[in-house]
Automatic annotation (TrEMBL):
Keyword field: ATP-binding, Kinase, Membrane, Nucleotide-binding, Phosphoprotein, Transferase, Transmembrane, Transmembrane helix, Two-component regulatory system
Organism: Muriicola marianensis
Residues that span the membrane, as ranges: 167-189
EC numbers for this chain: 2.7.13.3
Cross-referenced PROSITE patterns: HIS_KIN (PS50109)
Protein name as it appears in the record: histidine kinase
SMART domains: HATPase_c (SM00387), HisKA (SM00388)
PANTHER family linked to this entry: PEROXIDE STRESS-ACTIVATED HISTIDINE KINASE MAK3, SENSOR HISTIDINE KINASE
Domain Histidine kinase: 261-469
One Pfam family named in its UniProt record: HisKA
GO molecular function: kinase activity
């Protein structure tokens, strides 16, 4: 709307200026022809009343005084030339004669002679002003050319220019008002039109497969908006159905994977147990003097495998169990230092610039996080000439940061994103549940865990827990 108003205003202003110029040109052309005809009639009347023979040589005598009377009556100055283009008489005062051509050019004479109506009008320039000059023949009573009438005509456009400026000023005021109205109308109309679209856009932005999405309801929408809303609402229904199916499928898949993992891990100790029992059945002799020793070895082997199965069951149990929110206020520095006391490796070092950093955590779960990270670090440095593991605790804004750094083999880039997944491991033994359990514990207490690693140089695990609010 605004663009149309602007285009219309420019076009109408252009057409108005063009129309004024055309009218002015037509007006001056008609006025020149009218003045020329009036002067010719006065000249014809004078030639009829003169007593001199009507010939070219007598034109100067015939119009000696009469030329001034005609110029005064018609309110226009004019010149009379002979047929050769020489000036005979001019109505202009003598001090203006410098601007009057004493002889017409050959081009003017030839153009006048060759014109169909024996009349010529040309544009000239004098003292910086444009003017028109008309040339026509003066004839005797028998219509024989005896001279040339030259009528200079100066166009006065001051009145028309003033009228044009006033008209354009008024037109500009009208279009300025229309422009303001167009802006207001465009704003309210666009707000009305886009009201429904803004609602739909907001709902689309909030759409999330991980939560329940609300349908769109708009009062009095247009037909096109109704179709769009119906399509969105239908998509929401399908999305919810797909989300339910996906969640069920993921749960079933998770249980299947867990069952496979449990079965696989339990089979590992069952095989040596079976072989041990079968060997004992075949080779055991009660009369053998070393029977007691063999029974002890057999029992020891079975107990080891049973312990292995118990540790497997405990690991899965710990992984599946979500840590309870104990909200125990504890000193993280002291608790982390306590968790490291169970390790005998002399290359494990602990540092903290603060003696006390308070957070609300479960002591057992915090110790479990630290020990799992340290165990992973120990397993990463068996082949390093000078192994080193550094555990640090520090404040970082509103969080307490626990870092476990080692100079071990590092973690390749392609597996960094998988290290926190349950069941994923790069070791030849173990179930890959440690880091998955750590991540579950950390996120339960609204914390975060991340890692940085360079293959061959080492790895740093960083855990952030929110600090406890200080009581006044």
């Amino acid at each position: 709307m605004i663009l149309l108003v602007l285009i219309a205003s420019v076009l109408i202003a252009g057409v108005t200026i063009y129309q004024y110029r055309e009218q002015s040109r037509d007006y001056h052309q008609e006025r020149l022809e009218r003045k020329e005809e009036q002067v010719k009639q006065s000249i014809a009347y004078t030639l009829q009343e003169t007593t001199y023979p009507v010939i070219t040589e007598n034109l100067g005598l015939i119009f000696k005084d009469e030329i001034y009377r005609i110029a005064d009556v018609q309110n226009v100055n004019f010149n009379i030339y002979d047929l050769e283009g020489q000036l005979i008489k001019s109505s202009r005062p003598k001090f203006y004669n410098d601007s009057i051509s004493e002889c017409l050019s050959a081009e003017v004479l030839n153009a006048l002679k060759e014109s169909a109506d024996k009349r010529l009008v040309e544009d000239n320039l004098a003292a910086g002003d444009k003017y028109q000059a008309s040339y026509t023949y003066i004839t005797d009573p028998k219509f024989k050319p005896i001279g040339i009438l030259n009528l200079p005509y100066y166009e006065d456009n001051s009145f028309n220019s003033m009228e044009l400026r006033e008209f354009l000023f008024r037109l500009g005021g009208v279009y300025l008002l229309m422009f303001i109205i167009a802006i207001v109308l465009a704003y309210f109309i666009s707000k009305y039109i886009t009201r429904s679209l803004a609602t739909i856009s907001e709902k689309l932005h909030q759409t999330n497969i991980a939560k329940r999405n609300e349908k769109i309801f708009v009062k009095n929408p247009s037909e096109e908006i109704v179709k769009l809303i119906d399509s969105y609402n239908s998509m929401i229904d399908q999305l919810e159905q797909s989300a339910v199916k996906l969640a069920r499928s993921e749960r079933e898949q998770a249980w299947r994977e867990m069952a496979k993992q449990v079965a696989h891990e339990i089979k590992n100790p069952l095989t040596p147990m079976r072989l041990t029992v079968q060997s004992f059945q075949r080779k055991f002799n009660p009369a053998d003097p070393e029977a007691s020793k063999k029974i002890e070895e057999f029992s020891h082997t079975l107990i080891q495998q049973i312990d292995t199965m118990s540790s497997i069951a405990a690991a899965f149990s710990n992984f599946a169990e979500m840590p309870a929110q104990q909200n125990e206020t504890l000193n993280v520095v002291k608790t982390v230092k306590l968790a490291l006391d169970i390790f005998n490796e002399n290359y494990i070092h602990f540092i903290s610039e603060e003696e006390e950093i308070i957070a609300k955590l479960d002591r057992t779960q915090l110790i479990r996080v630290v020990t799992n990270l340290v165990k992973n670090a120990i397993q990463a440095v068996p082949d390093v000439p000078s192994p080193r593991i550094l555990v640090s605790v520090a404040s970082e804004g509103d969080y307490v940061k626990i870092s476990v750094a080692d100079n071990g083999i590092g973690i390749p880039d392609e597996v960094k994103e998988k290290v926190f997944e349950p069941k994923f491991t790069t070791k030849s033994s173990g179930m890959g549940l440690g880091l998955g359990m750590v991540k579950t514990i950390v996120e339960t207490y609204k914390g975060s865990i991340s890692l940085t690693s360079q293959p061959g140089k080492g790895t740093v695990f960083t855990v952030l827990f929110p600090k406890a609010n200080k009581t006044p």
